[in-house]
Amino acid sequence: MIVPPAFVARAQALREEIAYHNYRYYVLDDPAVPDSEYDRLFRELQDLEARFPSLATPDSPTQRIGALPLTQFAAVTHLTPMLSLNNAFDEDEVQAFDRRIREATGLASVAYAGELKFDGLAINLTYRDGILVQGATRGDGFTGEDVTQNLRTVHAIPLRLAGEDCPRLIEVRGEVIMPKAELERLNRAQTARGEREFANPRNAAAGSLRQLDSRITAARRLTFFAYGVGRIEGRALPARQTDILDYLETLRFQVSEERRLVHGVEGLLGYFQAIGSKRASLPYEIDGVVYKVNEVKYHEALGYVARAPRFAIAHKFPAEEAVTQLVDIAVQVGRTGALTPVARLKPVLVGGVTVTNATLHNEDEIRRKDILINDFVVVRRAGDVIPEVVGVVADRRPRDARAFAMPTLCPVCGSRVVRLSDEAVARCTGGLYCPAQRKQAILHFASRRAMDIDGLGERLVDQLVDRGLVKTPAELYQLDAQSLARLERMAQKSASNVVQAIQSSKATTLGRFIYALGIRNVGEATAKALALHFGDLDALIKASEASLAEIPDIGPVVAQSIAQFFAEMHNREVIAALRRAGVHWEPVAAGAAHGRASASGKTFVLTGTLPHLTREEAKARIEAAGARVSGSVSARTDFVVAGIEPGSKYDKARELGVTILDERQLLEWLEGIERSD
DNA sequence: GATCCTCGAGTTCT
DNA sequence: CTCGAGGATC
């Protein structure tokens, strides 16, 4: 269909006018016309496009209202990787950052761009000749998901860049966020519909952006802040980060007004303070600030460490804390009979998650922190995950506050509770007579690193033990789908899945089997060492305490635990029953532990999430190459492999000067070893 | 006997 | 992830 030129021109004029009003409204927060006028222009354009569909260009504002649902998101490889940032949690780490920059650049005082660290979702927008052609999530930094349709519904994202000299190609980096008020509105609506609330703005933004139906995304009022540029072609990148931000603003992106140019470490800390006191009054959530060396020319020279640039750092606000009332202290019984006090809290939102329980570790800890039942306590999410009671609010102690006493009888089985004089934990003496310990023993037996029985979770084990269907791990192998299906929350299908999983667990390895037995002080590493040393189970069962103690890494305490375990008639019977049921493993060449001439002897530590390998895969490959994987960083560690969001081990490694690898470097190293094998 | 290193055990919420 | 404690080393 030929479109009359007058309509083409009119559509063009309407697009530009609407885009401008859109910018005034959503980015500048300063509308130039009343809503009714905007709506009139919008409808006129919609009508034109309905009559002449070829007028509906991808940069048309009508494309913002959402399109037909997709079936899945396509994978997108970023032209330049989206890096993560290293974190600083206190002043010392900021000082160290500034010192490193000064040493590397030779500058006496460094100029930094200070910016906000938004609590949202990092996004890459690709514009060709000024038109938005693709928007993608960060993903693992190299590959993300194509969410272009959904991003078009975000009004603060220009569909077409403003200005005359727009680059041939530009990747704009920024954060999609959900303002606090919108999150509250959305959560009220979710509650009214009987659906789950979103715990925090990041989840809400991510959930909204990952909608296959972009009309849902359009209904959630997301916004976008730009903070950087990936690749740029056809125009030079401004020489300073502050100029880059100004440039993005001229392209009609929303750039935070809270950005500052600061100098030296005093400038950084002053900025941190200033933003910290403003935090609560900002209309959106932030979890810290970001410092970037302002002069771009230093960026490449400073280089990268494991996917994070050295020229920038995120200074995070301290873990969020909240005050709530501790209404009770319950006692849990663990696999070894250890009684662990757990604080029952009035539900409270900490760092975006509702917390109701927090471990108190042991009696001494409760006394040290002077915690009474009914006290008001400060709760924090330590290491960003596990809730922790920091301490009590002393001047809010209620009259009815009362001390906690460790029970003298096990709350589950009524056996005596003992606490050895040199130990911090109290233990139930009931052993496997105690249902709690029996349940934990069975759960441990079935756990992923032991026999790996999928679907045998806490709920199911509770019922199996309570109804007397299973008393020992061996009895698991007698279960059939029919009796399982009679249990609560067990349909025919899941029942047969569990039976299937139990049957296939019969083929295992000796190391896993020894670990699964749950011998005190024998974990995964020791179990594997025992399997390699003895080669078969009967030799281990017959081994004397003295001969066990001579094995490297096994001392008197562990040797006694093992000898005691196998001296117990009941344990030997369970093992025999397991073998009769068909549990078996490949024979191990005894003494294999000392083999492997190719062993590189290197020690690795893993931290953070790797983009492609799982932790287990990485561990298996490293061990297959003859190196060791350890859990903690020390002076003897050769390499630390850092993934996305590495933990404290990463900082420790940096402190000790241990070589840090990313996944790619790890794979290269492994290939080198495998070739020389 | 002191110190460093490694392993085991326990834990929260979605 | 963190803490506590067992084992090795000097």
Secondary structure layout:
Blueprint: H1 5-26, H2 35-51, E1 75-77, E2 87-88, H3 91-105, E3 111-118, E4 121-128, E5 131-137, E6 143-145, H4 148-151, E7 169-177, H5 180-192, H6 201-209, H7 214-219, E8 223-233, H8 241-250, E9 260-263, H9 264-278, E10 286-293, H10 297-302, E11 304-305, E12 308-309, E13 312-316, E14 321-333, E15 338-350, E16 353-359, H11 363-368, E17 376-382, E18 386-392, E19 417-418, E20 426-428, H12 435-446, H13 458-466, H14 481-485, H15 492-504, E21 507-508, H16 510-516, H17 524-534, H18 537-542, H19 545-549, H20 556-567, H21 569-580, E22 584-585, E23 603-607, H22 615-624, E24 628-630, E25 639-642, H23 648-656, E26 659-661, H24 663-676
Parallel strand pairs: 2-13, 21-22, 23-24, 23-25, 25-26
Antiparallel strand pairs: 1-6, 3-9, 3-10, 4-5, 4-7, 7-8, 10-13, 11-12, 14-15, 14-17, 15-16, 15-20, 17-18, 19-20
The chain binds a DNA duplex (14 and 10 nucleotides) through strand 15, strand 16, helix 17 and helix 20.
In DSSP terms (H or I, runs of 4 or more residues), the helix count works out at 24
> Which spans of ≥5 residues are poorly predicted at pLDDT below 50?
591-599
Largest sheet: 7 strands, antiparallel
User: What's the Cα radius of gyration?
Assistant: 31 Å
Residues in β-strands, percent: 15-25%
> In terms of structural class, how would the helical and strand content be classed?
alpha+beta
Quick synopsis:
By secondary structure, the protein is of the alpha+beta class. 37% of the residues lie in helices and 21% in strands.
Descriptors for this entry?
677 residues, alpha+beta, seven-stranded antiparallel beta sheet, 24 helices, 21% strand, DNA-binding
